[in-house]
Amino acid sequence: MRPLGIEGAWVDTPRVFADRRGRFHEWFKADLFREMTGHAMRLEQANCSRSTRGTLRGVHYAAVPPGQAKYVTCVGGAVLDVVVDIRTGSPTFGGWEAVRLDDRDHRALYLSEGLGHAFMALEEGSTVVYLCSEGYAPQREFGINPLDPKLAIEWPADIAPELSDKDAAAPTLAEAHLGGLLPSYEECTGYRRRLRSGVRAGIQGESCVSL
Predict the structure, then answer these.
(1) pTM above 0.70?
(2) Can you give the pLDDT at residue 205?
(3) Are the beta carbons of 142 and 176 closer than 8 angstroms?
C-alpha cells in the first residue's frame, strides 16, 4: 500500500499470480492494512455495484463521527475511482485524486472517514465491491455534485456521464460548505487517532476484518 497525495487515502497494487487456469491475488491483507493506517479495518457492510458504461456515482460521504471508511476494488471491467478532500481545514481541501481500478491490475483503494468518493464506469458491466466501516444510515449520508465545475474533476471526455437524480441534484462543494454539511479535517484526524489508540490498546472489536 502507498499513500496518495490526499492524506487519509491509500492505494494497494497486489501481486497477481497467473497461469493457464486463471489468476489469483490477495485483495485485502489485515496486517498490511494495520501497518499502513495504524488501525484495523472495521467491517460493518460490504457492497457490490454493477454499472453500465458512463455511470457516474458520487461524490458520496458520511457525517463524522463515525463517517464511513471504504476499501474499494473493481472485480469486473474498469472504473475511474476518485478521492475528493471535502474536509474543511485540510491542506488539500477541494483537491481530488483519481485511480483506475480494473480487473487486470486489481488495485484497491482505501478512503478513510470524511473523504468523498466517486467513480465512473469505463466499461460496460463494470463491477465494484467495497468494504465499509459503518453500515448505511440515510440520515448521515451526503453528496457533492461530481460535475461541480469548481472541483473540476477530469472525467473521461469521450464518455457521457449518467447520474442518478439524487447525485445530479447534489450541492456543489461551496454550497455544502456554506450549509455546514462538510466534515472538518480536525474531526476526521481526531477520529482516526482514536481508532489507532484502540488498536494499540488491543481493542479491535468483533467486526474488524480478518480475511
Answers:
(1) yes
(2) 39
(3) yes
